């Protein structure tokens, strides 16, 4: 099938939908294209799409086999978050920050808007195309100035951490495509996208993102059972070590070095965070309250006496929402991985599209989770919105009546 014929088939599939369902799909595509360029435009697309999807369920009827996986841990996490916010020192402020909970609707919106593996694959191609363009732009800017910590690239985002978090997910999807693809052309395009995304990721100098991407790539090779994938990862690692500027190699070798100022600062934050959990183990401080309470727990040796987050997803959630909220979040993440692995095992010798969606979802969320052990990327809207979309990939295209898998 030629690319033109495939595109025509995809367009015809959208035309065949009822009007609101068609608008939902167009908004989903628009979100993925705009995500690395403008948070405002991407949010307009995604929340317009969610609204049209919800209305379409009422007026046009949803597709057969409406899916609601993982709803139990998600519902518990939402409930405990709202309870924590209501009992914080500033309930109004915490409840206002609870609007971030609406982002989880992206998971169900994407999952139930996409009707086939082929549609899902076109969305992935839209995401990778946008990520590759943003990466090329980032590299163009990077080449015009000295490469180093003083010039960390942020692309179109406001900060390098956000670009790093976005590229971890996009890079995992590109590498997964390269590992699992069966066609030489698609494999070549995925390889080219992987190279520019990885290069742009290195320019952020974000070590948490580098570690996350490494874990994601390794996960992709393992779950795909690809010896070639493992060889690819080893080759990419060697190329980075050989051809990267000295500033990048020095940054790589500083990972885990307790003499490094930023590493020491993270350790101080984690110790302070554990003290916060011990003081308020049940409900935590409440959303958006770390910045107000942290100064009381700051280590005397720490350079930063104030911070808005703890550079660690599990610890931040435990400090902010209490241990029950932390357990609910871990249940949510664990249930996703269990369901994703179960689906992948059940596919056996299924076609590329179905296997790829599971491999990509598992590897990208692995990268997101591991990077989140050293950075609070769960509080970064641009990153977590994309993570929710990617979490839906293993479930896409399977119009089943069973709706509680993994929950």
Chain-wise SSE layout:
Layout: H1 3-15, H2 19-34, H3 39-59, H4 71-86, H5 91-97, H6 105-113, H7 117-142, H8 160-180, H9 184-203, H10 207-223, H11 227-243, H12 246-253, H13 261-279, H14 290-293, H15 313-347, H16 352-371, H17 381-391
Describe this structure as you would to a colleague.
The protein has 407 residues and is mostly helical. It has one domain (3-257, 307-395). The chain has 17 helices and no strands. It has helices at 3-15, 19-34, 39-59, 71-86, 91-97, 105-113, 117-142, 160-180, 184-203, 207-223, 227-243, 246-253, 261-279, 290-293, 313-347, 352-371, 381-391. It is globular and about 65 Å long. It starts with a helix and ends in a 16-residue tail after the last helix. The model is unreliable at 400-407 (pLDDT under 50).
Can you summarize this structure?
The protein is mostly helical.
SS-based structural class? mainly alpha
Count of discrete domains: 1
Average pLDDT score = 91
Q: What would you call the quaternary organization?
A: single chain
Q: List segments where confidence is low: pLDDT < 50 over at least 5 consecutive residues.
A: 400-407
Radius of gyration: 21 Å
- Give helix % range: 55-70%
Describe the main β-sheet briefly: none
Name the helix and strand elements from N-terminus to C-terminus, one letter apiece: HHHHHHHHHHHHHHHHH
Strand percentage lies at under 5%
* Coarse shape: globular
What is the number of E strands? 0
Tally of separate helices? 17
N/C terminus separation: 38 Å
